């Protein structure tokens, strides 16, 4: 997680384990049948051993080294004339660049010799290929045609949103169907600088609302709540495929599977157990996912939300006080999520949107409204005669885009190129521990400690 502290440059999940493992009882991650002290210790040892066993990826080479490479070539892309860019499945943080009329074919076995150059961040490396061999190659023209050819996913989403209003069609595809390839780079930058990039990476908000709408539709057609949940259970594993995959959508789908199954079997769902279940499934499927920023951002934010939100009681019944308390809780949740993901945001992306919690408080309800209006109206976008029914949803998407434009385009408040001293992350870890373990005023004291790496560093000028 703290790539600045690691000599090998990996975004190592060992930091995440060192922070979370000692406080698993606080998260109630230990299975219900192993709540005794002896059973808890055994469960922690087994889980720790399992996690460490899966951390088996090789370390990144250092800049200036000449290394031998071997692995499976991922689908590359042409960067310029006679230049191709790609990577190895076994080295997810190593970006390979070569020159030639031909490029390795996607999925082919690859061997080569390369010189290592610094990457775009401390957790990445770029390798300039000197010599290489692959058991299958494709010409530059074939690679260019493959990149230009629309994928089946893009073709399917374009067909579904054919008569959607053109102004919000790319954003609607990204949020409703997970197809972000047609989203403008400027729009992505505005969402990022406003602190709303997590809305484009489909996660628990999208899965929760999608399941809620499906459950409501099933109950309206005559199915009872229990039978509706049994019908939704086999659908959940297909949601990552439906929405394009990614650590956040995988986590949300796996957690929903665990919670629904526990409810149907008569148990009492525990959010911490569901999170551990999702993490174990993700590590079994793709151990390399632990080293990706998306995995760490998603799980750090979810851990803090589970702990902090469980300490808050029910809001009051009076409408005015209820709305005020809900707004305050939303602001606090957005703030603690921003601080809990601070190491990844700073060491990987070198940017920190300071007004992110405020824009999240405004954009969260608008995004939820756009999703609830958008999914039911997707069938009406297939024909031109009923396309007018999509206009309310398109209006909500327009409002969300305007909020992102205000926060990330017109009024950007972003610290860039942040390089805190390594030792300041120790105070961040202490604040993170207090945020998870302490209650009341101690949680407030933890927040400045978690922000200390940015406060200590010389603040760069605003862009």
Give me a quick take on this structure:
With 463 residues, the chain is an alpha+beta fold. It contains 20 helices and ten strands. The protein has helices at 14-20, 24-27, 37-54, 140-148, 152-160, 169-177, 185-193, 197-200, 204-220, 225-232, 239-243, 247-264, 271-285, 293-310, 319-340, 342-349, 356-377, 391-410, 424-437, 441-456; strands at 66-72, 77-80, 83-88, 91-99, 102-104, 109-118, 125-134, 137-139, 351-353, 414-416.
What does the secondary structure layout of this molecule look like, with pairings?
Elements: H1 14-20, H2 24-27, H3 37-54, E1 66-72, E2 77-80, E3 83-88, E4 91-99, E5 102-104, E6 109-118, E7 125-134, E8 137-139, H4 140-148, H5 152-160, H6 169-177, H7 185-193, H8 197-200, H9 204-220, H10 225-232, H11 239-243, H12 247-264, H13 271-285, H14 293-310, H15 319-340, H16 342-349, E9 351-353, H17 356-377, H18 391-410, E10 414-416, H19 424-437, H20 441-456
Parallel strand pairs: 4-7
Antiparallel strand pairs: 1-6, 2-3, 3-4, 5-8, 6-7, 9-10
Helix pairs in contact: 7-18, 9-10, 9-12, 9-17, 12-13, 13-14, 14-15, 15-17, 17-18, 19-20
How does this model look, in words?
This protein is of the alpha+beta class. It has a domain at 66-148: OB fold (Dihydrolipoamide Acetyltransferase, E2P), CATH 2.40.50. It has 20 helices and 10 strands. It has helices at residues 14-20, 24-27, 37-54, 140-148, 152-160, 169-177, 185-193, 197-200, 204-220, 225-232, 239-243, 247-264, 271-285, 293-310, 319-340, 342-349, 356-377, 391-410, 424-437, 441-456, and strands at residues 66-72, 77-80, 83-88, 91-99, 102-104, 109-118, 125-134, 137-139, 351-353, 414-416. It has a 6-stranded mixed β-sheet. Strands 5-8 form a two-stranded antiparallel sheet. Strand 3 (83-88) and strand 4 form a beta hairpin. Helix 14 packs antiparallel against helix 15, helix 17 (356-377) packs antiparallel against helix 18 and helix 19 (424-437) packs antiparallel against helix 20 (441-456). The radius of gyration is 23 Å and the shape is globular.
């Amino acid at each position: 997680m703290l790539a600045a502290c690691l000599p090998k440059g990996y975004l190592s999940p060992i930091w995440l384990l060192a922070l979370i493992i000692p406080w698993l009882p606080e998260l109630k991650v230990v299975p219900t049948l192993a709540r005794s002290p002896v059973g808890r210790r055994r469960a922690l040892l087994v889980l720790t051993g399992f996690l460490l066993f899966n951390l088996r990826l090789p370390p990144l080479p250092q800049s200036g080294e000449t290394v031998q490479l071997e692995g499976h070539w991922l689908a590359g892309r042409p960067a310029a004339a006679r230049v191709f860019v790609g990577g190895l499945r076994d080295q997810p943080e190593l970006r390979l660049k070569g020159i030639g009329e031909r490029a390795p074919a996607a999925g082919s076995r690859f061997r080569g010799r390369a010189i290592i150059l610094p990457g775009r961040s401390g957790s990445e490396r770029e390798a300039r290929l000197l010599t290489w061999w692959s058991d299958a190659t494709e010409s530059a023209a074939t690679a260019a045609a493959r990149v230009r050819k629309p994928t089946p996913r893009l073709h399917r989403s374009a067909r579904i949103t054919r008569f959607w209003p053109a102004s919000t069609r790319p954003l609607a595809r990204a949020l409703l169907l997970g197809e972000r390839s047609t989203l403008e780079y400027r729009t992505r930058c505005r969402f990022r600088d406003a602190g709303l990039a997590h809305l484009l990476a489909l996660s628990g908000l999208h899965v929760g609302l999608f399941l809620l709408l499906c459950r409501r539709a099933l109950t309206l057609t005559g199915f009872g709540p229990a039978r509706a949940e049994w019908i939704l259970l086999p659908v959940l594993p297909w949601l990552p495929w439906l929405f394009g995959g990614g650590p956040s959508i995988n986590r949300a789908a796996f957690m929903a599977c665990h919670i629904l199954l526990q409810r149907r079997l008569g148990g009492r769902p525990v959010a911490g157990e569901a999170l551990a279940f999702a993490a174990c499934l993700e590590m079994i499927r793709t151990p390399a996912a632990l080293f990706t920023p998306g995995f760490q951002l998603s799980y750090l934010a979810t851990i803090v939300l589970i702990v902090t939100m469980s300490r808050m009681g029910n809001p009051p019944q009076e409408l005015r006080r209820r709305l005020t308390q809900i707004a305050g809780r939303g602001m606090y949740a957005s703030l603690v999520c921003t601080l809990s993901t601070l190491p990844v945001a700073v060491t990987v992306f070198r940017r920190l949107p300071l007004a992110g919690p405020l824009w999240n408080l405004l954009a969260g309800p608008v995004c939820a409204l756009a999703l609830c209006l958008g999914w039911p109206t997707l069938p009406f976008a297939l024909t031109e005669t009923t396309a007018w029914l999509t206009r309310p949803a398109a209006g909500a998407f327009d409002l969300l885009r305007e909020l992102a434009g205000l926060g990330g385009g017109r009024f950007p408040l972003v610290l860039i190129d942040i390089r805190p001293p390594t030792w300041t992350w120790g105070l961040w870890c202490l604040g993170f521990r207090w945020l998870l373990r302490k209650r009341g005023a101690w949680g407030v004291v933890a927040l400045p400690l978690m922000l200390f790496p940015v406060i200590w560093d010389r603040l760069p000028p605003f862009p």
